[in-house]
């Protein structure tokens, strides 16, 4: 079995950009947002993960077998932040997600990595767990949001004046805030007011508005996940 | 060019993540001040430089801190773009592949290694070893694809993936004693075995990697300490 990540023979002849994705995935949404911000046309392919994984997905990402996968002229790029970096590298004539200064780039990578390491898993613990572990998850989520609040500071976006890498990385989670608030019994506006304002600002951008689902829809989806995992 | 360029690295001698940064700095021919940290008694400098994670490595460049080994590696490559060899490839797709493998190493190799190292039960340990060896096998394939017959993941010269895996080398060389299994062998991973020999012969490796015997002793002591503290 070949683990050739280029898999060029399998998908030769396909031109352009294709995104293998799952409607509600915040990691997939990052890519949709990035592509929209860059004005890059692409084919969106919904992978019905609830019904199993398609051959195309398994061939494109044999190692992780996950979405999102970006196919560029048939060659797959995996992992959402790697995809975002790739879009910047491969399409230098489009608006950059990362700033140009090396130190600012390092800061952006650090905070995007922080979002990756912390937000989704902590959110999952919030709706999955009870008792003491739930209380810990709540405390962790508040700390995460406070850290991000501090990192944003008085800037309009994490990238400064312009919407950038960290904004694209974190914006999809804004539709999950409502659920985190309900499960965690806290208010984002109270613990992280700058983040709350930033979330609103992001929502006003077409790239974000078109990629995200409503907070109610996310709450409903979590209900589905809970059933799947046998959580009360 | 006016002014001094000051690099300071906060680290611990045993940390593979710190070794990665040392490797990169040496390969680029950069001089720096190394400051050994006591993680049981964290310094003010560490806490103010990395308030979010409070971990090493931290690279401080002219007073400005950069945290997380992978972020630091990319920073070094970008801030010193014209100094020494390039760590990442220039082609956008090859960069994405390099980032993918570094992310893979971080996501998949460390956890089963730790399980194999610390597991109490025979079953758990066997499972950890099995998973670790499966990951190593995948990396053998990655080396074949990335090197295209040349000495390193980066081709003719050491690159990003070489450094990311290279930082872990002392632990990998100590794996037989620490986890009860050889990670590399001539039958299954001939390319990686040859790569290990090549990599450890580099000047950068001799300076950046800790002594294997010392590391094994240290790791065993830590494991015993942890076991004791759990039993309390």
UniProtKB/TrEMBL annotation, chain A:
It is found in: Cytoplasm, Cytosol. It comes from the Eukaryota. Its EC number is 2.5.1.18. Residues 101-221 form the GST C-terminal domain. One of its GO terms (cellular component) is cytosol. Its main location: cytoplasm. GO terms for molecular function: glutathione transferase activity. Keywords: Cytoplasm, Transferase. Residues 15-95 form the GST N-terminal domain. One of its GO terms (biological process) is glutathione metabolic process. PROSITE patterns: GST_CTER (PS50405), GST_NTER (PS50404). It catalyses: RX + glutathione = an S-substituted glutathione + a halide anion + H(+). Is involved in the conjugation of reduced glutathione to a wide number of exogenous and endogenous hydrophobic electrophiles. Conjugation of reduced glutathione to a wide number of exogenous and endogenous hydrophobic electrophiles. Belongs to the GST superfamily. This is Glutathione S-transferase. The lineage of its organism: Eukaryota, Viridiplantae, Streptophyta, Embryophyta, Tracheophyta.
From TrEMBL, chain B:
The keyword Transit peptide does not apply. CDD domains: GST_C_Tau, GST_N_Tau. Keywords: Transferase. The keyword Transferase applies. Signal peptide: none annotated. Residues 91-223 form the GST C-terminal domain. Pfam families: GST_C, GST_N. This is glutathione transferase. The gene is LOC123162322.
